[in-house]
């Protein structure tokens, strides 16, 4: 991170580390904060520092948390026999919003051998420990529907099956409110392959 | 220069900036090519679902400088239905292509071999033979074809029941009684490799050692990440079969 002798330019540059923020937006935000909301900006700076210093990963599920064991793992009302494997912390919130009531394991990525990301980088030894604890009765594979996500799901399903635990993969296909003729062929192929009895 | 739509496979993609992709493809006409897919990760682009490995696509791009710019991508076929070990093997093949082909060198025959091996990985349960034959064709394509039919010292035809030593980048000769050099391989395996049909466990094992030796010379020191993944996967699979 280079610093010029110009604090405003430094701020604009720093703001650009946020996703979706280009040079123009960064400048708009910088001026807005300086002209209209210094209090809010100070608060933000404090929160950012605290979060960056204190948030790590849950020792059980790898979710982002400032605690040793995150809330998802420690809440008693969550079903400990269900374990949902997802790629990112954002996926945890998405599954939670969708009404899922079990626990999670967060890979923080997916298998991508050509990028050097293997089982170790995804903490799969930690997942193995969790599975060996004997509490889990079903593992729900909710990795993304990409080739890498599917590869990850296949790899983990072998780990799970070796322990005689039920494995399921989230169903995928036609989005809610979707019209068939506008759906891309890859999605439709998967929807067709994953069809089920209709009663 | 605009490159008109034609058959290609995606070898690898990587996120680039916020909504774009860096895409490595294997093109039927131009070999390995690097492209930038501007906005390809935006949902509205409809490209994210298509720009995936293991599917025959029709891709057009405009070429300028080292990386081309993706212009259009359409499906030519349904995705190759790889599962389990087939997926791991598919990545292995892609990594070999990435490591051994230079960019922008046409390999039209190897492209057909690639399409074929992908179909085989989706169909057969044992991928070993399909992988070995592809490796041989790959070495041939990059100018390091193996000598499989004659003894390089005597010039005589390889005999099935003799044991040979295959010295890297040279070829087979009768194995020395003491301390043979290179990989030891039966004549029968060399002959089976030449006619592209490995018949026994022994042939498969010897062929694997030979090809690992020959590929290793061109891959350098960096290990193949997809190979370790493939092995880790098979390891788990094996532990499943234990009583
Ligand atoms: Zn947790």
Q: Which molecules are bound in this entry?
A: zinc ion
Please report the first level of CATH classification, the CATH class of the largest domain in chain B. Mainly Alpha
SS-based structural class of chain A?
Answer: alpha/beta
Extended strand count of chain A: 6
- What's the pLDDT, averaged over the residues of chain A? 92
Q: What count of domains describes the coordinates of chain B?
A: 2
CATH topology of the largest domain in chain A: Dna Topoisomerase Vi A Subunit, Chain: A, domain 2
Oligomer: heterodimer
Structural features, described:
Chain B: This is DNA repair protein RecO. Chain B: Involved in DNA repair and RecF pathway recombination. Chain B: Residues 6-74 form the DNA replication/recombination mediator RecO N-terminal domain. Chain B: Pfam families: RecO_C, RecO_N. Chain B: It comes from Methylohalomonas lacus. The complex is a heterodimer of chains A (199) and B (243). Chain A has 199 residues and is α/β, with parallel strands linked by helices. Chain A folds into two domains: 3-54, Orthogonal Bundle (Helicase, Ruva Protein, domain 3); 64-169, Dna Topoisomerase Vi A Subunit, Chain: A, domain 2 (3-Layer(aba) Sandwich), CATH 3.40.1360.10. Helices cover 43% and strands 13% of the residues of chain A. Chain A has eight helices and six strands. Chain A has helices spanning 7-15, 23-36, 38-54, 71-74, 89-97, 124-132, 147-161, 185-193; strands spanning 56-57, 64-65, 79-86, 102-106, 138-141, 166-169. Chain A has a four-stranded parallel beta sheet. In chain A, strands 1-2 form a two-stranded antiparallel sheet. Chain A is globular and about 65 Å long. In chain B, strand 4 (57-62) and strand 5 form a beta hairpin. Chain B is elongated. Chain B is built from six helices and eight strands, in the order E-E-E-E-E-H-H-H-E-E-E-H-H-H. In chain B, helix 4 crosses helix 5 (201-219). Chain B has two domains: 2-75, Nucleic acid-binding proteins (OB fold (Dihydrolipoamide Acetyltransferase, E2P), Beta Barrel), CATH 2.40.50.140; 81-243, de novo design (two linked rop proteins), CATH 1.20.1440. The longest helix of chain B has 19 residues, at 201-219. Chain B is an alpha+beta fold and 243 residues long. Classes of the chains: A alpha/beta (199), B alpha+beta (243). Chain A binds chain B through residues 19-20, 111, 113-116, 118-119, 146-147, 150-151, 154-155, 158-159, 161-162, 184-187, 189, and chain B through 11-12, 14, 18, 46, 49-50, 52-55, 75, 78-79, 83-84, 87-88, 91-92, 94-95, 98, 224-226, 228-229, 232-233, 236-237, 239-240. Zinc ion binds at residues 58, 60-61, 63, 69-70, 72-73 of chain A.
């Amino acid at each position: 991170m280079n610093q010029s002798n110009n604090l405003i330019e430094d701020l604009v540059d720093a703001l650009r580390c946020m996703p979706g923020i280009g040079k123009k937006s960064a400048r708009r935000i910088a001026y807005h904060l300086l002209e209209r909301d210094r209090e809010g900006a100070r608060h933000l700076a404090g929160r950012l520092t605290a979060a960056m210093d204190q948030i790590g990963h849950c020792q059980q599920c790898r979710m982002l948390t400032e605690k040793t064991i995150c809330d998802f793992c420690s809440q008693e009302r969550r079903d400990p026999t269900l374990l949902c494997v997802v790629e990112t912390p954002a996926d945890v919130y998405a599954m939670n919003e969708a009404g899922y009531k079990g626990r999670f394991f967060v890979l923080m990525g997916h298998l991508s051998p050509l990028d050097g990301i293997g089982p170790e980088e995804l903490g799969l030894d930690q997942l193995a420990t969790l599975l060996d604890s004997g509490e889990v009765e079903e593992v729900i594979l909710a990795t993304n529907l990409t080739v890498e996500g599917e590869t990850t799901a296949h790899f983990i399903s072998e780990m799970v099956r070796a322990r005689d635990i039920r494995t399921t993969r989230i169903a995928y296909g036609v989005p809610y409110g979707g019209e068939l003729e506008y759906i891309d062929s890859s999605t439709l192929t998967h929807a067709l392959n994953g069809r089920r009895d209709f009663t | 220069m605009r490159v008109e739509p034609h058959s290609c496979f995606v070898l690898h993609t990587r996120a680039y900036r916020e909504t774009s992709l860096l895409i490595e493809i294997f093109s039927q006409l131009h070999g390995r090519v690097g492209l930038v897919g501007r906005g390809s990760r935006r949902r509205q682009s409809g490209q994210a679902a298509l720009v995936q490995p293991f599917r025959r696509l029709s891709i057009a791009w405009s070429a300028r400088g080292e990386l081309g710019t993706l212009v259009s991508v359409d499906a030519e076929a349904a995705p190759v239905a790889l599962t389990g070990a087939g997926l791991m093997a598919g990545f292995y093949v892609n990594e070999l292509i990435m490591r051994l082909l230079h960019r922008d060198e046409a390999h039209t025959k190897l492209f057909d071999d690639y399409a074929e091996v992908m179909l085989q990985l989706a169909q057969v349960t044992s991928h070993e033979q399909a992988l070995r034959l592809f490796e041989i064709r790959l070495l041939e394509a990059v100018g390091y074809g193996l000598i499989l039919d004659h003894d390089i010292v005597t010039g005589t035809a390889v005999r099935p029941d003799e044991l040979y030593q295959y010295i890297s980048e040279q070829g087979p000769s009768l194995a020395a009684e003491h301390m043979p050099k290179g990989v030891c391989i039966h004549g029968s395996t060399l002959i089976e490799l030449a006619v592209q049909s490995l018949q026994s466990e022994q042939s498969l094992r010897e062929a694997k050692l030979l090809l690992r030796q020959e590929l290793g010379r061109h891959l350098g020191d960096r290990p193949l990440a997809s190979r370790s993944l493939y092995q880790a996967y098979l390891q788990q699979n094996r532990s499943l079969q234990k009583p």
